[in-house]
Amino acid sequence: MPLAPDQAEALARIALGHVGQEWPQKLDHVLTGPEDLRRPSELHPAFHGSFDWHSCVHAHWMLARLLRRVPALPSAAAISARFDTAFTPGNIAAERAYLARPSARGFERPYGWAWLLKLHAELAGTTWDGILAPLATDFAARFHAHLPRADYPVRAGVHGNTAFALTLAADWAETRDTALFDLLRETAWRWYGGDTNCQAWEPSGEDFLSPALTEAAGMARLLPPACFAPWFDAFLPRLDHGEPASLFTPATVSDRTDGRIVHLDGLNLSRAWCWRRILAALPARDPRAERLKATAAAHLESAMPHLDGHYMGAHWLASFALLALEETQ
User: Fold this and answer.
1) Calpha distance 158→143 (Å, rounded)
2) What DSSP character marks residue 202?
3) How far is CA 58 from CA 19, 103, 198, 287, in A?
4) How many CB atoms lie within 10 A of CB 125?
5) What is the DSSP letter of 257?
């Protein structure tokens, strides 16, 4: 499903409308004293828009991806100007200083960590690559330190999901830090290698990730094809019968003004992304392929009309739409 130029421009316009919008803001911020009572743009001069830090990061990833994929985008100059404003040595030094605070040890773990690495991977070869590099290196160091002591995965359908973080971080690590890539692969196998006969008791009422499909998509990204196929057959052994049925049925969204219920639009988009990743890793002419393609399309169709309906979804859904539409590496 190639990304149409008008579709790319529409996504870019959504993100450009909020990446610099400081208010409203939901901070991941520990107050250790009155001196910590500062406005978001002072705490995070590079990433203070889009309602929260991680959404601002992945909105910039989307803009970088669109700029690289569609260089003639009408919004190209506005995107470059935004990056020039956000990605300065001083702003990145301030983000690093925030990260170095003892109270920020768990800041954005692991979701924001992974999105920052994915953003930096997308900026490879650009003028902003070197500016963002020190911050990316800081987050890579956090993965190196954290994963060996993380005895258990997090299987939630929200930000803590560890399979999603491993998948996103792999795009950066594969070319920038092969030791980290090896660690991501080893950790995925340690956490998920023995999983079989997944029941897929989902969705929960606030999911934007499918615990089952995000795990499978992560294994598709990190395992060699010869290892992935038998693992996947054991993990979801009844797909050819349309089971578990919950994975084939788009979630309904009752209230798109509710910041948590609207997560379910993101679930439909991220499921479409997962199905596409899984399809790409399956053998050619796999008998399940047509069912999986149709399921991905149905999930995508259910969410695409709602990307910009209300700020609670608009500040982040477009990034997940781009994953589902175009990003298949």
Assistant:
1) 19
2) -
3) 10, 23, 29, 35
4) 7
5) T
| Same structural domain, 122 and 184 | no
Q: Are residues 84 and 173 in the same domain?
A: no
CB 78 within 8 A of CB 16: yes
Tokens 């690559």 correspond to 129
Same domain, 210 and 141: no
In Å, what is the CA distance from 9 to each residue of 5, 56, 79? 6, 18, 11
pLDDT by residue (tens digit) across 236-291? 999 999 999 999 999 999 999 999 999 999 999 999 999 999 999 999 899 999 99
| Euclidean distance between CA atoms 128 and 110, whole angstroms | 23
Tell me the C-alpha distance between 327 and 154, whole Å: 24
Q: Are residues 187 and 326 in the same domain?
A: yes
The per-residue pLDDT for range 53-103, each reduced to its tens digit, is: 999 999 999 999 999 999 999 999 999 999 999 999 999 999 999 999 999
3-state SS assignment for residue 299: helix
Structure tokens at 101: 């605070």
- Rounded CA-CA distance 5/22 in Å is 29
In the chain, the N- to C-terminal Cα span, in Å, equals 14
Q: Residues 159, 276: one domain? A: yes
Spatial distance between the Cα atoms of 273 and 266, rounded to a whole number of angstroms: 10
What are the percentages of helix, strand and coil residues in the chain, rounded to 5?
60, 0, 40
Query: Which of 225, 209, 205, 246 has the alpha carbon at shortest distance from 323?
Result: 209
Radius of gyration of the chain, Cα coordinates, nearest whole angstrom: 19
- End of a domain among 114, 149, 184? 149
Q: Which residues, in sequence order, are CB contacts of 234 under 8 Å at separation 6+?
A: 196, 197
Domain boundary among 149, 167, 198: 149
